[in-house]
Amino acid sequence: MILNSNEKATHLDQDKIFTHDFNVTHTNMFTTALFTFTNVFLQVRNDHVAPIYVINLLISDLIQFCCMIVEVAEPEDWKINEAFFSIYYFGLMASVGFMVCVALERYLVIACPLWYRFHRTIKIPIAVCVMVWALPLVFLLPLIYDVDYDILKIIWAVFFLLPLPLFIFVLGGTLKALSASRVPSDEKRRIIAVLVVVLITYVLLFLPSIIWGLAEEHSYNDTLIDLSFTFIKFSPLADLFLYVFIRKGAVDKILASLCCCTMESNDIREGLYQKLS
């Protein structure tokens, strides 16, 4: 399709407006997230708690945001863009790994409380974190050696697909083990909230990228490509919900009120059933 000069000017103006709005959105997003991340990190230090996986998840999110700043700056040198593209996906893959670690840790608290208590040493989380940081390097090797683009998409889609059944298993196993667990009720509510948030955000944000990478007939669908890249950019912000639910405080009251409402509705249903029978 050949465009005349007026049509070209119109498309150029639209691209400039879109780019400006995109840049402003990401700049505001980074400022808000950086302030929230700093606040959460200071709260962790004040409580003398060391949630190692959460802190590493925080670092991986900050890496992604720093790469977004470079994207907003639009450097002219393509080598800089390529380098920060690799760094961005390194941080993204690491964040997925630490989301898995957070979910598994919450599961062990409920399903294997004794094992978790006696094996809760600093050495194990540090070793796991080193492995999680090293794993994305293996998956980025095809990108460094200029492997075919279609193969790269499949590799990344498989990487993002693997945690999904694990999240479902962890949530189901946690719900099953709740009845026999002696963990305090507020801690149970917080753990379930964390696992539900992880599963929902992962499905919403990463499923378009998984479909785009594995479905050949939709590989060049512009709408699916835009959705996959846009949703993934919100992954660091989605992790903020994890920090909120992991923290003790006002969220416990909200979760407690929701549970109380559920219990009251169940009691009312049981009472009506007994009267009718």
Overview of this protein structure:
With 277 residues, the chain is mainly α. The radius of gyration is 22 Å and the shape is globular. The chain folds into 2 domains: 12-246, Rhodopsin 7-helix transmembrane proteins (Rhopdopsin 7-helix transmembrane proteins), CATH 1.20.1070; 253-277. Residues 1-21, 46-50 and 259-277 have low confidence and may be disordered. The chain is built from 11 helices and no strands. Helix 3 packs antiparallel against helix 8 (185-214). The protein has helices at residues 5-46, 52-73, 78-111, 113-118, 123-144, 149-161, 163-177, 185-214, 222-233, 235-246, 250-276. Helices cover 85% and strands 0% of the residues. The protein starts with a helix and ends with a helix.
* Run of helices and strands: HHHHHHHHHHH
Low-pLDDT parts are 1-21, 46-50, 259-277
CATH architecture level-2 label of the largest domain = Up-down Bundle
Helix content: over 70%
Which geometry do the CA atoms define?
A: globular
- Please give the alpha-carbon distance between the first and last residues: 73 Å
Structural class: mainly alpha
Spell out the CATH superfamily of the largest domain. Answer: Rhodopsin 7-helix transmembrane proteins
The profile of the biggest β sheet is:
none
Given the structure, what is the number of helices?
11
